[in-house]
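Inputs:
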Amino acid sequence: MSQATATAHRRPSGRDAKRAARASRAAASVPFITRKIPYYQVLDKEGLQTIERNADTIMEEIGIDFREEPDALVLFRQAGCDVQGERVRFPRGLARAIVQRSAPAEFTQHARNPARSVRIGGKNTVFAPAYGSPFVRSLDEGRRYGRIEDFRNFVKLAYMATSLHHSGGTICEPVDLPVNKRHFDMVYSHIKYSDKPFMGSVTHPQRARDTVEMAKLVFGNDFIDAETGRPKTAVISLINANSPLTFDATMLGAAREYALANQATIITPFILAGAMSPVTVAGTCAVTLAEALAGMAYVQLVNPGAPVVLGSFASSLSMQSGAPTFGTPEPALVLYTMAALARRLGVPFRSGGSLCASKIADAQAAFESANTLLPTCLAGVNFVLHVAGWLEGGLAMGYEKFVMDADQAGMMHTLLAGIDLSENGQALDAVREVGPGKHFLGCAHTQANFESAFYRSPLADNNSFEQWEADGALDMAARANKVWKHQLAEYVAPPLDPAVDEALQDYMNRRKASFPDSNV
Amino acid sequence: MSQATATAHRRPSGRDAKRAARASRAAASVPFITRKIPYYQVLDKEGLQTIERNADTIMEEIGIDFREEPDALVLFRQAGCDVQGERVRFPRGLARAIVQRSAPAEFTQHARNPARSVRIGGKNTVFAPAYGSPFVRSLDEGRRYGRIEDFRNFVKLAYMATSLHHSGGTICEPVDLPVNKRHFDMVYSHIKYSDKPFMGSVTHPQRARDTVEMAKLVFGNDFIDAETGRPKTAVISLINANSPLTFDATMLGAAREYALANQATIITPFILAGAMSPVTVAGTCAVTLAEALAGMAYVQLVNPGAPVVLGSFASSLSMQSGAPTFGTPEPALVLYTMAALARRLGVPFRSGGSLCASKIADAQAAFESANTLLPTCLAGVNFVLHVAGWLEGGLAMGYEKFVMDADQAGMMHTLLAGIDLSENGQALDAVREVGPGKHFLGCAHTQANFESAFYRSPLADNNSFEQWEADGALDMAARANKVWKHQLAEYVAPPLDPAVDEALQDYMNRRKASFPDSNV
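Outputs:
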């Protein structure tokens, strides 16, 4: 399976392994995707300007609340905003100007393995696993709370997935660890069990500092960029707005810590349309843009030039039950529009993923995930969180869903590579060789392109009905169950300098011992 | 369920029915879709010209075989082609010129209920059910051969689906009827149990004539267009090429009958890339275009001005098993490209659908179907066959899959309607009313837009995990099982003039009695 294997794959055996090896040859393992197909955009320039104008109106007339963070208010006042209490109102165009003055259009997030470093922004797309679920689900155990063992498992699966470029962050909540010390084990697991780039803790400013300290231990003398004299960006972190139009002290504090250390932040309005924004696409886009601009401006005021990403998480609310829905057309329209707005602003964009409301890895999960991931790729999202594993509106991380999503992410590599118009791609000689009424199966061109011809899914069953029945009449989830177990059994950790490992463990142990456990 | 109800819905009762009624209000029932969003195109003008040039080279150098149809060879020779045996070689640009001289850019296919007539071409999209499967599948009975009762059931389900605009054709094979007389019952069922437009028989020229005769009985004096003096287009039919680069007498004979009667044909190269075309996207597009141009030119030579549609059915072959695969990236790239080529040619385009290789309505089916239907809509397909029910590479028609696909088709209506930029759509007043930190649930704008705010899926479960468990922890297929049964139970036939009904039955009975049953 293209997701099953990595460089670390050793001694494959049996049928699954053979399939894995074949697929592995076919799937190009790249550190990130650079798209070769055009963006899809729904609104034209005039339409996008309407949204921008409305975001300006919201920021100017209504304003954004920055709660319990007096330093932020000082920064905004100095920058020319009208600050009343905790309400910050921005003169038209000011936030945009602040962002455009110093925020990089694209940047590198460094991995401890330099071959895995990712370029975020521009025509690049980076896939990361799902984030933040308290529960995990598998066919074997059903749904239960996540544990650190699950966390490590998903880090390993993401490491082995050639279609995922990033280790992610809170890949699931390790509920068996105290709330105020979990971040140590999460960050350590990302570093220990993977060499892909990862995300940092945002639940407290001190935890953000811990994340940066641990990154420093990994990169050592290499942490400071010799050319710029600034710290290298080794961590990217998720800063959600308290939508609508509000940021709280926890998130602002974490954003501040990361910005000061030149680490990347993703400023993401978290919008369930109908609750945190109006029930319309255009209204939701205007609120999202206003919040993101305000948050990104804050980051640039804290440390001009610190990498920052415009984020958008939009779901539409079920007007019957009040539950969030996924994979419906409206969030896709928001996604296409926000991506275009981010390009106009000139900053990297984060959105999308393989989102779904389904509790299990059934057809609903797949419809909804595909209807999110494909727009994600066509729109031109640069950093895609929640690519693999997401179930139940983000409440559960699914083992089977993870490998199914990784397969879909593999397909997106092929899609984004576009159409080969080389002579070999045009294949006129093949048509000349075969001619009317014959078949191309054995022709020279087919033989030459056999291996790389088409994307090969490790999970799709394309066999005859009879063969499928003989194989046990399994559905895709049942096949996925075998695949993730096989992958975990075959996992081999990437090498880590024992001195670094010791330093990380030493830091964790000292810090953990320095304050009592707490679950608040 | 938006697909569950239609004008004929009577006395809804119980929970399902209430959901149905709610969804019905939300879903706009339109005879066809007129898109308000841009097309997505992968290749630029230069790339498309490369494909066109290669198609011309194929037609000029290699040529197309027209088998056992001497009349076709005469027509092509008269038009200026080089005819050697059954091989027809086209001077560069000739087929294009023939098509562009007389083929309509768009046309109306008339339904017996004028409110259901569809406009095929331009910015319009028409959704039709799957076509041609010998088997049917349901959760209750598993997989078995299709019967005329199944055929009628699917005609009824398509009639009740507000997201489907067309009754389709060989919606499943009624294997319990003799091969040489099935077409009577199929055409009659489309007319009797639905008032949406339908497709005709193509398995023999005489069966095409029967189809046209039955359409004449339905339209009566109204069959001839008073303005043009030509027959109205009341039937559209699927003419597949015998790819690569070959047309056979059966298909050419049916195409000829329909063209002479001014009925529409869809000329569709049926390509499993790697077998009937090279293993590349660009090569597959060139072969598809060459075949389609040749077939469409034939139709225009038979009867200039007869409606004709450029069709493309492309799947990529599994290079391991030789089985067709669906929902992979390569066919989507073909789809985007062929749609753009059809627009450049100036003819309506048929492709896509909800294709999958999965045997059951599981996650594989959904991933693959979504990865076909969304590109179908973004590319700008005008006539979409196989929108609902398709399983197992077209070998089986699924009851549960049918209503699941119809739900997805409903979402596409919302997507293609684009983004409302009216003042109400921009919703600035809602943001002014609510402000930071509050929610939009009860605000005036939300109240006013409550009913139509978001697409409502009748099949997705967006409830809490606990509620879903209390409801039986059903997957989407199990929910779909309830829905199609409910729909069939609630079905009421559209009115049909008893005199027309009698005339149709009389025609069928006379014709059936005039020759012996045969299963070849």
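Remarks. Confidence is low (pLDDT under 50) at residues 1-14, 16-28 of chain B. Chain B touches chain A through 123 residues (CB under 8 Å).
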